[in-house]
Amino acid sequence: MNSLRRDGAGAISEAQLAREEEGISRITWFGGMAVIVVTVATVLTLFVKAAEEPWHFALYTTLLAVPVAYVLFCNFVTRRMQMALFGRYRAQVSVQLMDLQELVYRDELTGLFNRRHFYDNMQMEVQKAHVSKQPLAILILDLDGLKLINDEYGHRAGDAVISNLGKVISRHTRAHDVPARLGGDEFGIVMPATDKRGAFALARRLWEDLEKTPVPLEDGREISVTVSIGLAGFPWGGESVEEMVQWADADMYANKVSRKLSRQPVPARGQDDTESYPRTWNEGD
Asked: How would CATH label the architecture of 113-275?
């Protein structure tokens, strides 16, 4: 990485940092040498011509101490300046690294995390759940009919639908949840410290929000969209990342197929208030 310049922020590149450090050191060195040369020449002249009284020697010794004190002072000041410069540079690098992480882990269209961060975070949370015995839930969500939307309204409309879905997901997730776009029309949410009831409650809120909020298009038309949702969690829906994802995928596809077979939502047997989004199978299946 030859340069860490960032547009519009007045960032210092590595080359700039090196030039500033070199300039500070050069000024300090030349200034110190000049003072030393002048002082030593003056003191030697005085020694040769006027060193007759004892107090002369004390005066000359004091004069000789001036360059030494100056050099020590310059070194102190230079060190402080270099540390301040390094602090500024390190702060800028930290900000730039955070920006790079955002680029690496964020989906550009929705602003949510991407697939890589979703699985990295899920792996970490599963390990933590095994140690702490705290619940963990994940939600896998698939947008229904995106291809039909693209074919009928165009890809700009499809992008608008996906972007809107990202906003809806962001509205209903907590600060420590990890909402992500897994690719295309598939989304996921990692929900630490969330039990089965909490996961179903979030699924219900997402469904209701999408159902009552059509997506506006540029030409003034609106599109109503639906999603298929699958849930899994530790320990009730798997004990590893692979098991939980498989469980949630199966749950999601069962939801999608059941709604294709019957356009009217059919409540699950024994379903309680936490499962009021469209499903056709029992929570305990």
From this structure: 2-Layer Sandwich (3.30)
Residue in the structure block whose two tokens are 């896998």: 140
- Predicted TM-score (pTM) of the model is 0.62
Report the 10 Å Cβ neighbour count for 172: 17
Please name the residue that has the structure tokens 């992480």.
101
Contact by Cβ (8 Å): 252, 177: no
CA distance 83 to 42: 35
3-state secondary structure of 50: helix
| Tens-level pLDDT at each residue, the chain (285 residues) | 444 444 444 555 667 766 776 776 677 677 667 767 776 776 666 666 655 566 666 666 676 676 667 767 776 777 777 777 777 777 777 777 776 766 678 898 999 999 999 999 999 999 999 999 999 999 999 999 899 999 999 999 999 999 999 999 999 999 999 999 999 999 999 999 999 999 999 999 998 998 888 888 888 888 888 899 999 999 998 999 999 999 999 999 998 888 777 654 444 433 444 444 555 333 444
* 256 neighbors 140 (Cβ within 8 angstroms): no
Return the closest-CA partner of residue 215 out of 203, 227, 204. Answer: 227
Give the domain ranges of the chain: 14-105, 113-275
* Alpha-carbon span 249 to 142, nearest angstrom: 9
